[in-house]
Amino acid sequence: MIMTPNYVKLVENTPLPRVALCRQTFAATRIDDPAAAVKDAMQAACVDKIKPGMSIAITAGSRGLASLPELLAAIVDQVRARGAHPFVVPAMGSHGGATAAGQSALLAKLGVTEETVGCEIRSGMETDEIGVLDNGMSVRIDRYANAADGIILFNRIKPHTSFRAPNESGLAKMLSIGLGNQSGAENCHARGIDNVGIFVAHMARMKLERCKVLFGLGTIENAYDELSRVVALDSEGMLEAEAPLLQEAMRNMPRLPLGPLDQPTATGELDVLVVDEIGKEFSGTGMDPNITHRFSSPKMQVHLHISRLAALGLSPRSNGNGNGAARADVVTERLEADFDREAVYANALTSQVLMQAKMPMVMPCDRTAIQTAIKTCGAADITQVRLLRIPNTLKLEYLYVSEAMLPELRDRAGFEVITDLQEMQFEGGLLAANWPDAHA
Questions:
Q1: Rounded distance between C-alpha atoms, residue 210 and residue 235, angstroms
Q2: What is the SS3 assignment for the chain?
Q3: What is the pTM of this model?
Q4: GO MF terms on file (predicted)?
Q5: What is the number of alpha carbons within 13 Å of residue 301 lying toward its C-beta?
Q6: φ, ψ for residue 65, nearest 5 deg
């Protein structure tokens, strides 16, 4: 007979609020034909650098980019149409447990296989040193990519989760960290997370000068996690050309419905945020701090204070990498069971942000995790808890809103209450994942 732990008994009578399904509407531009967008972008003059017979390495990262397999397949087709020989290189630093097999497996979870993209995937962790920065840092690049006749950088451009700089997550970071594999990524993080943006730029510039980078293809997504734009950037002046695209990506990001709409991010106070899933395809830190304002660096500006955050599960596509679970206050036993130390610890040791590898309080199920968050959130009256529930930090179109929050949100521009108030639905302790289809 399984006995209920005493600590569970302390929360099991905590009342749960009634919630209503709501919808946010964001201004958005969407590309419905990724292959055509790639073809159009690759008409740029820089694409003339692809010559018949060349071997071309194309980078693929660990993030769940919108239309990722289709975009990679389209790049492969365009390279092959010009008489060159493409292959894909996993370029994800220490992700995938910092092993070649792990990185290939992570790509497969994202739908990227030799069959879906139409070319060979060459996965290896070996690197070549191409130079040393003035401070002694070794600058390294994936050996397969370095041996190719040319490199095409491919990545999504978006705000980073832990630092601010002219170039954050995008082509520069793909070049400096992603293509550095574990050793190169570790070097870039060696002086702490607050300095990563500086070394991303320094290492990227050296690689652009000394390696065979032809050009980069960057994508920008809209607030619905959909492809919004594909751009080609020549290797010459790439970092300067990428900077305004980062600002565009920032403006495109979704947000929680808190604070004035004319502010670039959510602001204010929230008692409880429930996140159904964390994972690498949603954010490098499992949950995007640009949404939750729970950053790794104390230097990041925080405009939103969430008293308690409950993370319920780890996405299967994250391949066990529960990096960032520590940013929750409470998680479930099922998330803990899926938490792979091999993947998480390799990631944390490389980034040197050890906080990301910690495990918060663990409760048996979704119900008790949410009850724990409510009981300890500090609200004057927990029967009137201000609670939001989201599927993950990437998709914020639909969300559940507690009864106490509805009056302040009903008349919010771009906000719609979809259903009547209802009790939270659980099946064997699991919160029912009854999310509508995404934006269409």
A1: 11
A2: CCCCCHHHHCCCCCCCCCEEEEEECCCCCCCCCHHHHHHHHCCCHHHHHCCCCCEEEEEECCCCCCCHHHHHHHHHHHHHHCCCEEEEEECCCCCHHHCHHHHHHHHHHCCCCHHHHCCEECCCCCEEEEEECCCCCEEEEEHHHHHCCEEEEEEECECCCCCCCCCCECHHHHHHCHHHHHHHHHHHCCCCHHHHHHHHHHHHHHHHHHCCEEEEEEEEECCCCCEEEEEEEECCCHHHHHHHHHHHHHHHCCCCCCCCCCCCCCCEEEEEEEEEEECCCCCCCCCCHHHHCCCCCCCCCCCEEEEEEEEEEECHHHCCCCCCHHHCCEEEHHHHHHCCHHHHHHHHHHHCCHHHHCCCEEECCHHHHHHHHHHCCCCCCHHHCCEEEECCCCCCCEEEEECCCHHHHCCCCCEEECCCCECCCEECCEECCCCCCCCC
A3: 0.81
A4: lactate racemase activity
A5: 6
A6: -65, 150
Dig out the tokens for 277 from the structure: 């899933």
CB 185 within 8 A of CB 138: no
pLDDT at position 214 over 60: yes
Same domain, 70 and 114: yes
Summarised one tens digit per residue, pLDDT across range 272-292 is 999 999 998 888 788 999 899
Do 405 and 388 meet the contact criterion of CB atoms below 8 Å apart?
yes
- The domain tally of the chain equals 2
Question: d(Cα 134, Cα 185) in Å, to the nearest integer?
Answer: 17
From 196, 221, 252, give the residue that closes a domain. Answer: 252
For residues 19 and 82, membership in a common domain is answered with no
Last residue of a domain, one of 224, 252, 280: 252
Strands 19-24 and 85-90: unpaired
Residue tagged 């006749």 (tokens): 149
Q: How far apart are CA 199 and CA 214, in angstroms?
A: 21
107: containing domain: 34-252
Cβ atoms < 10 Å from Cβ of 132: 12
**Does the pLDDT at position 440 exceed 60?**
no
Least confident span in 106-110, 113-117, 158-162, 390-394: 158-162
Give bridge partners of residue 38 from the DSSP assignment.
none
pLDDT given at position 182: 74
